[in-house]
């Protein structure tokens, strides 16, 4: 039964990751909550699963000309350099602390996404109101 749950979790994580929503955002909690996998192992699995998903995503984005190669070094170099101390830190932290930090990260990410969405809606409403007034004045 556990094997079936692991397969379902892998399929769900792969589908969500393939849709560009960040499969790890769901894969790690699914592995830890439903499969009883330790946080360190769940994050390792996520990193391993991320490699093929990111390669496919890069190929698709290149074909669709959605990558601005001028900014790539400014993102890739710090990410690679900082991944080393982050991995060392993650190894030194206990599973409980790592789970708490990951939970806080997800909450902050959710709040950020909510604020961005609200700002977008407010700007759209303002834009429509402004456009409506200028048309009424004509």
What does this structure look like?
By secondary structure, the chain is mostly helical. The chain has a domain of 71 residues. It is 86% helix and 0% strand. It has five helices and no strands. α1 packs antiparallel against α2 and α2 packs antiparallel against α3. The radius of gyration is 20 Å and the shape is globular. The mean pLDDT is 85.
What's the main sheet like?
none
Number of strands: 0
Rg (CA only) = 20 Å
> Structural class, from secondary structure content?
mainly alpha
Tally of individual helices: 5
| Uncertain regions spanning at least 5 consecutive residues | none
Distance between the termini: 69 Å
Share of helical residues: over 70%
List the helices and strands and how they pair.
Blueprint: H1 2-18, H2 23-34, H3 39-63, H4 72-92, H5 95-137
Helix pairs in contact: 1-2, 2-3
Feature tags:
5 helices, 138 residues, mainly alpha
Question: Can you give me a brief rundown of this structure?
Answer:
This protein is mainly alpha-helical.
């Amino acid at each position: 039964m556990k094997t079936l749950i692991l397969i379902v979790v892998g399929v769900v994580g792969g589908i969500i990751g393939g849709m560009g929503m960040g499969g790890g955002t769901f894969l790690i909690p699914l592995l830890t909550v439903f499969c009883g996998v330790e946080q360190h192992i769940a994050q390792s699995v996520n990193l391993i699963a991320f490699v093929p998903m990111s390669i496919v995503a890069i190929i698709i984005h290149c074909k669709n000309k959605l990558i601005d190669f001028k900014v790539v070094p400014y993102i890739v170099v710090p990410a690679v350099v900082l991944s080393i101390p982050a991995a060392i830190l993650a190894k030194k932290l206990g599973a409980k602390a790592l789970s708490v930090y990951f939970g806080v990260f997800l909450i902050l990410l959710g709040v950020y996404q909510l604020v961005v969405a609200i700002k977008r809606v407010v700007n759209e409403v303002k834009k429509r109101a402004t456009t409506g007034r200028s048309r009424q004045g004509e």
